[in-house]
């Protein structure tokens, strides 16, 4: 148990947030809650189908990304291969399901990927976002990701350093969650 800070948002789930709108409505009705209006995926008939499809996808299709062995094509950002994770994170935010495990896993995936890419600024940005999620869950996020010094000690950052010291082609790396 802990004190609630001024301005802190409280969230309580009375149903599984990744269930379909019909399943959520049924679960809520059993608790005496009718006509949920927490978001468009619950209350807007035009959006319910899309929301149901996304939520099913969140549960059953993990995001898997590979860094290619080939150099990035001209004009392509070195982190272009990470875009599926960014899209998933955006969809999770659009659905308003930041309380689900998939959201924190996507953020942690980005922390690890950007550690590997040695982009300290992005690691710290995503670490700050995930810290809030962990705090709500009553967990501590690894402190090493809050400083450049700590990030440089992380396993993925060190892996990249080792690859650079060996020279030659970098092997592909797989990052996944699910």
Note the main attributes of this structure.
2 domains, 52% helix, single chain, SET_dom_sf, globular, mainly alpha, 178 residues, two-stranded antiparallel ribbon
Number of helices: 8
Shape: globular
Strand order of the largest sheet: 1-2
Following the backbone from N to C, one meets helices and strands in this order, namely HHHEHHHHHE
State the total count of DSSP E strands. 2
Q: Can you walk me through this structure?
A:
The protein is mostly helical. The protein folds into two domains: 11-61, no CATH class; 63-176, no CATH class. Helices cover 52% and strands 3% of the residues. It has eight helices and two strands; from the N terminus they run αααβαααααβ. It has helices at residues 21-30, 40-43, 45-60, 83-95, 101-116, 120-136, 148-151, 155-166; strands at residues 64-66, 174-176. Helix 3 (45-60) packs across helix 4, helix 5 runs antiparallel to helix 6 and helix 5 (101-116) packs parallel to helix 8.
How do the strands and helices of this protein lay out in sequence?
Blueprint lengths: L20 H10 L9 H4 L1 H16 L3 E3 L16 H13 L5 H16 L3 H17 L11 H4 L3 H12 L7 E3 L2
Antiparallel strand pairs: 1-2
Brief summary of the model shown:
The protein is mainly alpha-helical and 178 residues long. Helix content is 52%, strand content 3%.
């Amino acid at each position: 148990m802990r004190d609630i800070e001024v301005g802190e948002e409280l969230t309580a789930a009375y149903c599984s947030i990744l269930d379909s709108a019909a399943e959520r409505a049924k679960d809520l009705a059993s608790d005496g809650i009718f006509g949920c209006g927490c978001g468009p995926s619950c209350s807007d008939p035009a959006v319910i189908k899309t929301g149901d499809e996304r939520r099913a996808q969140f549960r059953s299709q993990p995001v898997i990304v590979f860094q290619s062995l080939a150099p990035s094509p001209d004009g392509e950002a070195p982190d272009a291969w990470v875009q599926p994770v960014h899209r998933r994170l955006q969809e999770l935010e659009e659905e308003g399901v930041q309380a689900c495990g998939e959201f924190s896993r996507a953020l942690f995936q980005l922390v690890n990927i950007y550690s590997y890419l040695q982009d300290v600024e992005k690691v710290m940005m995503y670490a700050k976002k995930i810290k809030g999620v962990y705090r709500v869950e009553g967990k501590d996020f690894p402190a090493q990701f809050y400083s450049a010094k700590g990030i440089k000690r992380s396993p993925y950052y060190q892996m990249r350093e080792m690859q650079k010291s060996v020279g030659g082609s970098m092997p592909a790396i797989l990052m996944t969650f699910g």
